[in-house]
Every structure is written in C-alpha cells, then in structure tokens.
C-alpha cells in the first residue's frame, strides 16, 4: 500500500470485481474525509452532493448495462421503407419533456442559437466571444467551458446529456453549478425504465435528488417522445434503428431539440458527411476537444458507421440528414463551413 491516507476498509461491496470495490471504498471514504470537514458550509454541501451523485451513479451503471440495451432495443419501427421527410416545425411531439422537479414546462425559445459540438475542430477558432454573444448557447454531455473559453465561449443556455454521460457529468457537477448563469436548462435522455418519471426510474430519482438544490431547470425525455425520435430516424434514413444495430447519438437528440426551440442555428465544429472520405479528412484530430489523447475523430466515425456487430452510432448517416435539414430549418455550419 502506498504512502498516504489509508482507505476505509470495505466490509461490504456489491461487486466481486476488486477494482470496482476499491473505487467504492475510495468514494465512501471521500464522504467522511477531513477535507469535507474543512470546507465552508456551501462547499461542504457541494462535495457531498457530488460524491453522492458519483457513488450512486457507479452503483447504477455498473449493474445496468444489459438493462439499458434491452429497453433501448424495444423501440422498434418498420424496416426497408424509403427515406422521407418530417416537418419538425410542425412536429406534434414538441412537448414530451418531463420536469425533474415540480410542474415546469420546457418553454425555452430562442431566435438564434449557437450549437457547440464537442469536436476538436472548434480548437483554435477563437469563436468564444461570438458564441457568447448568441442569444442561446447549446452544449452536449460533459463538454467543459473552463479552460476553453477562447474557442467555445463560457455561457450555456441548454445542455443535452445522455444516460451514459451522467457519471462523467457528476464529476464536473461543481463546475456546472458554480458557472451557471441565469437559469440554464438541462435535458437528459435515456432508457425510460431508468430515466422515466412514470417508471420511477433509478436515474430519474438520482438526478432528482442531486438537482434539488441547483438553479438548473432539469427535464428528462418522456418514453413516448423517445419512440418518436426512433421513428424520426427511420423516416429520415429508411433504417430501422434496432435491426440496423444503431444507437442514436446525443448529436441527433440535440439537433432535433435545437430545431424545435431555435428560429436559426449556427453549428460550431461539425464536419460534413463526406469529410472523412476526402484527402484532407485524413488529418488526425481527437474526437473530443477536451480529450487530446482520445480516439481520432474520423476513425471513430468510420468504425461506427461500418460496423454491423453490436450496436453503434451512425454518425455519418446522421450528418447526411443534418445536411438536408440545414436547407429546411435555417441551419449554418461553421468551423468548418459547409
């Protein structure tokens, strides 16, 4: 054992895996460490909230992989139909957002939105000031602003978060809470049995407890609307999401939500669908701007697009749909422009 504070012995652990039990012990120890006692009252509460969020999330996610796949695969629509179009401005399912607390409505509407992707193509653009001048700024998952303000800005009006990113978001919860300006909106999407209020889902209860003392307006996507997202994918691509072994990306959910609430949209950092097939597309850039040692973007896109084993995102297929939507819904792509 290394030098330093000893971990509290774990007398009970829900897993047989030694590494998971060690993580459990460290998190449990963090809740009662002297560091927590030395913080002020507000910091103390923040540390406990964040630690509780991480601990509960770890319990949920380590035991729910099969459940997530089962429930998500239940959203089944017909196969082999030709691609069509849907007028999202007249989409009857603009609602379908369930408040985590109270009876709030998701009433956010903006004349112009900046949708900031998590791609490394935003780095070096110096677009931060321009983004912050936009009426509403939309971000995804755990993409940070701290340390990247010059390129991605600082403001956030809406953040769309996948069920699979909740644990990572939990680790950055103090940043999101302390840096929140105004009353930003957070929308979580995921399997209804985990995220659904009606089903009293475990993730919904967790988010409900942790967000109780924040000034974020939090919503989850209702099960009925989750099915509509699947149907929309089928209508626009001709692909059955389940039989094509596809998982919708957070980008898919975010783009649809942005079209719902924004009169016009500027998307920062999203490449065109043919980018990775071009000679210049061979330039290696990390998939996420905040993970410089992460996987290459084009490798990630092409591997997911071509794989037929397991479930994968169809990033390039989605971008083909986005290109068509851009002509319908006043969407502009910059850095790169296309």
TrEMBL record:
Listed InterPro entries: Glyco_trans_29, GT29-like_sf
Record's subcellular location: Golgi apparatus membrane
Signal peptide bounds: none
The reaction(s) this protein catalyses: a ganglioside GM1b (d18:1(4E)) + CMP-N-acetyl-beta-neuraminate = a ganglioside GD1alpha (d18:1(4E)) + CMP + H(+)
Lineage: superkingdom: Eukaryota
Recorded GO MF terms: alpha-N-acetylgalactosaminide alpha-2,6-sialyltransferase activity
Gene Ontology cellular component annotations, sorted alphabetically: Golgi membrane
Lipid bilayer topology: Single-pass type II membrane protein
Keyword annotations of the record: Disulfide bond, Glycoprotein, Glycosyltransferase, Golgi apparatus, Lipid metabolism, Membrane, Sialic acid, Signal-anchor, Transferase, Transmembrane, Transmembrane helix
Transmembrane segments annotated in the record for this chain: none
Biological-process GO terms, alphabetical: cell-cell recognition; ganglioside biosynthetic process; oligosaccharide metabolic process
Short name of any one Pfam family annotated for the protein: Glyco_transf_29
PANTHER family: ALPHA-N-ACETYL-NEURAMINYL-2,3-BETA-GALACTOSYL-1, 3-N-ACETYL-GALACTOSAMINIDE ALPHA-2,6-SIALYLTRANSFERASE-LIKE, ALPHA-N-ACETYLGALACTOSAMINIDE ALPHA-2,6-SIALYLTRANSFERASE 6
Entry's family note: Belongs to the glycosyltransferase 29 family.
Protein name: ST6 N-acetylgalactosaminide alpha-2,6-sialyltransferase 6
Organism in which the protein naturally occurs: Tetraodon nigroviridis
Lineage: Eukaryota, Metazoa, Chordata, Craniata, Vertebrata
């Amino acid at each position: 054992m290394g030098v330093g504070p000893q971990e509290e012995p774990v007398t009970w652990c829900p897993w047989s895996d030694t590494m998971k039990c060690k993580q459990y012990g460290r998190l449990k120890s963090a809740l009662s460490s002297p560091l927590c006692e030395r913080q002020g009252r507000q910091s103390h509460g923040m540390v406990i909230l964040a630690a509780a969020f991480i601990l509960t999330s770890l319990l949920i996610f380590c035991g729910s992989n099969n459940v997530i796949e089962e429930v998500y695969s239940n959203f089944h629509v017909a196969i082999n139909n030709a691609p069509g179009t849907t007028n999202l401005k007249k989409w009857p399912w603009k609602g379908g957002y369930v408040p985590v607390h109270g009876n709030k409505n998701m009433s956010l509407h903006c004349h112009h939105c900046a949708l900031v992707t998590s791609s490394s193509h935003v780095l070096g653009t110096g677009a931060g000031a321009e983004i912050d001048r936009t009426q509403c700024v939309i971000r995804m998952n755990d993409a940070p602003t701290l340390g990247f303000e010059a390129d991605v800005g600082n403001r956030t009006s809406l953040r769309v978060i996948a069920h699979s990113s909740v644990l990572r978001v939990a680790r950055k919860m103090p940043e999101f809470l302390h840096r929140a300006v105004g009353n930003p909106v957070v929308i979580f999407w995921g399997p209804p049995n985990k995220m659904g209020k009606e089903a009293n889902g475990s993730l919904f209860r967790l988010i409900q407890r942790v967000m109780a003392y924040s000034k974020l307006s939090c919503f989850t996507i209702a099960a009925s609307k989750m099915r509509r997202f699947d149907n929309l994918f089928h209508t626009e691509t001709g692909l059955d999401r389940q039989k094509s072994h596809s998982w919708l990306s957070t980008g898919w959910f975010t783009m649809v939500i942005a079209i719902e609430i924004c009169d016009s949209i500027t998307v920062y950092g999203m490449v065109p669908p043919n980018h990775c097939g071009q000679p210049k597309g061979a330039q290696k850039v990390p998939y996420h701007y905040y993970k410089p040692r992460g996987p290459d973007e084009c490798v990630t896109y092409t591997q997911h697009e071509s794989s037929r084993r397991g479930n994968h995102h169809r990033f390039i297929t989605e971008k083909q749909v986005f290109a068509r939507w851009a002509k319908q819904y006043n969407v502009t792509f910059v850095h790169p422009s296309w």
